[in-house]
Amino acid sequence: MKLDIFSHCVIDHIHIDNSIFTVPGGPACYCSLTARALKFDVKLHTKYGSDFPLADNLTQNKISINNGLSEKLTTQFTLKIRDSERILFLENMCDSIDYDELISDNVLISPVFDEISSDLLEKLKSISGFIFLDPQGFLRRKGINNKIYLESTDLNLSKISAIKTSPDELNALTGISTIDGMNVLQKKGIEYVILTDKQNISLLFNGKIYSLKLPNIELYDTTGIGDIFSTTFCCTIIKEKDFLWALSFAAGSAQAALENKEIGLDKIPSRSAIETNATYFYNTVKFREI
Questions:
Q1: Sign for the pseudo-dihedral over CA of 131, 112, 53, 21
Q2: Alpha-carbon gap, residue 128 to 164, rounded angstroms
Q3: Number of folded domains in the chain?
Q4: How far apart (Å, rounded) are the C-alpha atoms in residues 93 and 49?
Q5: Concatenated DSSP letters for 45-77?
Q6: Rounded to whole angstroms, how far apart are CA atoms 165 and 247?
Q7: What is the mean pLDDT of the segment spanning 257-263?
Q8: Which of 219, 217, 167, 162 is nearest to 193 (CA)?
Q9: How many Å separate Cα 83 from the centre of its chain?
């Protein structure tokens, strides 16, 4: 199986308690490495600068990157994390991502901040069969002291197959942060609409809400958890064509990543850890019609 991923590589400065960790990351890394752990061939469409330390490592993991190196420095964020809450600041922005030939009919799009143009999005929608979208980077704006906030955005969501949002992102897209907002997105033609609200995960599919809850766990570095979740759902639905397994595997990957309490990319779980958790979650899924 093959997957094309569109997102910036990032250098994150993560503040947790009184410690600061500077680590490579971004959806480009979390999504690509998670997809490789799930045995997918990956082409990463990205940009990074000479300061990015992980380019050779991505190549060694058989992740294909064409023309990724930019003359600009890598996109950088400062993240101040407390439990599941985080405050985000944009420190640097690399070049935008250009279109390059796809290796598959499956695309995962997860911008971090304005690196994917509306023209590129429309191009990808016109030539892809399955598109998973994390819309965060289309909704983010830069405010005072480069602090990131979300702004209501009229994003063309036609031909999107699956989407993952938080309540704040859902509100920015629809004006509603609850299940009613999910229904608005599904009426736009999105087959799988996912809402992640801390421990609570909901999936709207074919007029039914499927839900599960991650168990209580002491949180540490939550950076990249959403990317790991998204990629696992995307890869599983592409391979298995079973939305309940995809939801269970995605929850299992998030749980496994949280349990290992690692910083940065070290939290990406193995396939065996994902599968163990997925079996548990599969038997806990509840559903109701809306």
A1: negative
A2: 18
A3: 1
A4: 10
A5: E--B-TT-TTHHHHHHTTEEESS-B-SSPPEEE
A6: 14
A7: 89
A8: 162
A9: 19
The parent domain of residue 172 ranges over 2-289
Residue type for position 94: C
Percent helix, strand, coil in the chain, to 5, is 35, 30, 35
CATH number, position 91: 3.40.1190.20
H or E segment and range at residue 287: strand 286-289
- pTM of the entire predicted model: 0.97
Q: Is 9 left (phi over 0), alpha (psi -120 to 50) or beta?
A: beta
Token representation of residue 47: 């940009």
Q: Does residue 177 have a pLDDT over 80?
A: yes
Express each pLDDT in 89-146 by its tens digit: 999 999 999 999 999 999 999 999 999 999 999 999 999 999 999 999 999 999 999 9
Q: What residue has token string 């736009």?
A: 188
Alpha helices for 91-224 (secondary structure H): 118-127, 136-139, 167-174, 179-187
| Average pLDDT over every residue of 264-269 | 94
Tokens of 256: 């496994």
Q: Are 234 and 275 in contact (CB under 8 A)?
A: no
